Each structure stands twice: as structure tokens, then as C-alpha cells.
Amino acid sequence: MANNAGRNVGGALVSLLKDYGVDTIFGIPGVHNNELYRGLLNSGMRHILTRHEQGAGFMADGYARATGRPGVCFTITGPGLTNIMTPMGQAYSDSIPMMVFSSALDVQDQGQGHGRLHEITDQCAAASTVAGFAATATAPHDVPELVARAFSSFTAGRPRPAYVELPIDVLASEVDANWQARPACAVPHPDPAAIAEAAKRLAAAKRPVIIAGGGAISATGALGDLASRLNAVVIPTIAGKGVVPDSHPLCAASSFSRGLTKKFVCAADIVLAVGTELAETDFWVDERLNLSGDLVRIDIDGDRLSDRHGSDVAILSDAGAAVRALLAELGGGQGNGEFTQADAEKLDADAAAADSKEESQLRQVLRELRAALPERTVMATDMTKIAYAGNEMFPVEHPRLWLHPVGYGTLGYGLPAAIGARFAVEGKDRPVVALAGDYGFQYTLNELAVAAEANLDLIVVIWNNQGLQAIIDDMDRKKIGHIATNPVNPDYAKLADAYGYAYQPVAALEGIGAAVARALEEGGPQFIELDGAAMF
Q1: Structural domain tally of the chain?
Q2: Which range of residues forms the domain containing residue 463?
Q3: Of the N and C termini of the chain, which has fewer Cβ atoms inside 10 Å?
Q4: Burial (Cβ within 10 Å: 0-12, 13-18, ≥19) of residue 428
Q5: Do 311 and 364 sit in the same domain of this protein?
Q6: Which among 370, 384, 380, 378 is positioned nearest to 513, based on CA atoms?
Q7: What digits encode the pLDDT tens for the residues 5-15?
Q8: Has this prediction a pTM greater than 0.90?
């Protein structure tokens, strides 16, 4: 416990965060939040200066996804908050623990319309639209309680961004007591009666299917064991990739966007959905799935258990605790499921056979990338066609390796998220790759500077198809004439050189592996441009 008496709130807050295990903060200093930086100067904590608050938020998101620990940001009043709200929205949608601290106008000036610098009508109300917890500290003694509540929100329920704002006058106020981190809340455990009922139904099922969502990460290992016990096919959502290894005999690809996979799931006599909203962005179905059998749901968010899909058996619990309880309830016996490895393989094979020409080409590119990269490579991807294909086609063996902006679906995520993950993940056997399209990359390309000045081992892969191809395809389907879909790209070779990245152009499929191998060997900031137009 740090002795905070006699320090100001800014300094005491930094010491408190260190007690909570925070080692890295992403942010930008400014005239309204400089007191936070007084505390950081000799704290021993690492501060990453980003080029935009949006970059700070996405880096914190990537850090959190790669580690499971909250990513922490410092931002400034007004535009600092509104700039970081897009990453907060992404983290809110995808259940990512992010801790955002912002300065705010003096307590007496809030909501008064005095024309103060960075003034907005109600800053905390704005933040609350993209936060699971949002509060204002109106006095120094509020701060330790609000921080404790914020950190508890990451374990006691569905993890989402937490926001605490600190008025300028409060930040500068003296602290007259010691602050210390409070123990984290224990994760919720399941009701034994619900576990018993779920185990009975699952054991009797002939065609059981398990859907592994992003909330199932705490059940890694146990969920694969449960699938084997039940002879159940496992289909991960995009956020759930790696919770059950793709090499598991009963694991099929994340192919819910395919009609044949939805049909397979809907024909099951029981579906166990673990840590998933069963949302549009999981299945690309506007309404509920038309399931034939029972639906057993495990979720830490009680609202999900009674949403439009409902639950035949609802288990409010941390996923890991519930899945382990199911295994214990089942004992050593085997379920009555009839699925085998051949069924999972056939589902994957049928999906590949249904590839369009473009999907087949993207599958080849992803196969080359997968073969060239170590098993534990972290891939942070953007909203781009090659990443959409990779959601299904890029196999992973562990969770926290495929980082994709699923629900909110914002452009510009891939590069800063990869940088955040790179600051979190160490070791030559753990490469980090940003995979982005030529247009979406330009949303946050300024963050190239962050990796360059830290000389990070980071590989940036740009899929250059010379335009907004996904939008063009959608316009074609809707018979809308093409407009605003063919922007002029920068010269990526010159851009890479300007930021100090080694640059490699690749215009042939067979060149991908060699380019990746060279980037891995050389280390440091690397830039690979894949010419999608010339490759096939």
C-alpha cells in the first residue's frame, strides 16, 4: 500500500492504480490533465504517448484482449473524451475491460455554459453511453471508491469500459488519507439446480452443438473436454476463436455467416451457448435463430439469458465455473451424442466448397500467412475483406490471438490494437501482426509513429485492393451506382519509409511466406503491402 497522504489526487491515483497491478497507461498529456502526469513521472509505470485519443483507446483494447487485464487510458476534458468514445464503443460491444480516466471542468463549472475550454454539456452522460460504469469524483475521497467499483465491474459482471472523470480542481486537491486497492469481487458461480438440469439434457442429446463465444475464454480447456464428453460439435463465434483449439477433433470453423452452418446449428436437438449474445454480428441473422431443440445458456450477463432467444435452461455464471461444474455433474460418463470428428470436418469442407471465387483467393492468402507465422502469433485485424475471411479461415489454437472489432465494427482498429498487444506480449515466439485494408488503415495510420519510436517488433500487413471493395459489392447487390468508393491511396513504400518501417511489396501468392519470414528475422517495425489486385 502506497502512502498517499499529503499528495494531490493525480499523484495518489497513479499510486493506487499501481497497487491494482496496472503497469501501462495509454494517453496524451494536456493542460487539463497534467496533474495525472505529475504522478506518473517517477512511478515506474510505463506511459505510451499516442498520436490521438482514438489510438489510445484501441491500444488499451488490444492490450486487454491479449492479456485479459484492463487496458488503462488517460485523456483530457471534452475532445479527449469524444475522441476516445469510438474505442470505448467497440470495447463495450465486445465486452473488453477498459479503464478510462478523464479530466473534467471544475466542479462549479460543470453544466453551466460558461464557455470554458473543452466544455461540453454533460461529459459523464456522454461517456455513459459507451461505458458499463461511469462516474464523476466530486471530491478527493470519492476517488478510491469509484476506482474500486470500476475494477469490480470487470469481474463481477460482463466486462465493459469503466469511466471515471476527475474535475481539474479535484485533481489538484490534496489527499489526507492512504488509499489502497480493494480485493476484486469473486466471479459468479452457477446454481447447482440449473447445472443438474443442464447436464441431464446435454447427456441425453443425440445431436448436441456448443457455441463458444468471447465470454467463454475462462472455460478454455474445460470446454473442449466437455465437447469430447458429450460428442458435441463446437462452433466458435469470432470473439470465441481459440477457446477450443481449431485442431480439436470436434471443433468446426467460425463459419456462422454461412447458411449451411446456421442450418446445422438449428437442426441440433440441444445447443449449449457459452458466453455469447447470439447477436446479429455473430450469425448475420436479423432476428432470432430458429432452433429446433433446447437452448442452454451460460452467461455472466443476466440480461442475455432472457433476451429474444431466451433460455430453456439459464445459468448465470462465469463461463469457466459453469463448464467445470457441468463436467463434475456429468462425472466420468459419456454423453449420448452421435457427432464425430468427421461431422466437424464435413462442416468445414462444405463451407470451403461453397467459397466464391474471391473467398477462395482470400483463403489461399490466409493459408500462406498462417503457414509463415508461429502458432502463438497475435493477429489484430481491421474491418476489411481479408479479415472477414480470416474470421472463419484463419485457424488459431489458443484464445486471445485473433483480435477483431466484431460488434461495433469500427474501421481503424487493427494497427493501434496490434501496438497495444505488442506492449503487452513479449517474446520472439509471440509475434504481433496488424492486418488491415488499404482504406481502413488510413483511419489510424498516424499511430505508426508509436511503434517506430519504441522500435517495436511489429508486422503491419496491408491488403491493398485499391478501394472500398466491400462497399462496392454491397452497392452492386442493391443496384446503387458506385460513388465515393475509389479513393487515392498514399504511396505505402514512401509512407513506411517516412515512419522508419522496413517495407516489402508482395504481388504474388508465393511471395507471402518469404516476406513474413524476412520480417520475423529482421525484427523492428515492418510493413508488408499485399497487392490484392495483382496477386490473382
Answers
A1: 3
A2: 355-531
A3: N
A4: exposed
A5: no
A6: 370
A7: 558 999 999 99
A8: yes
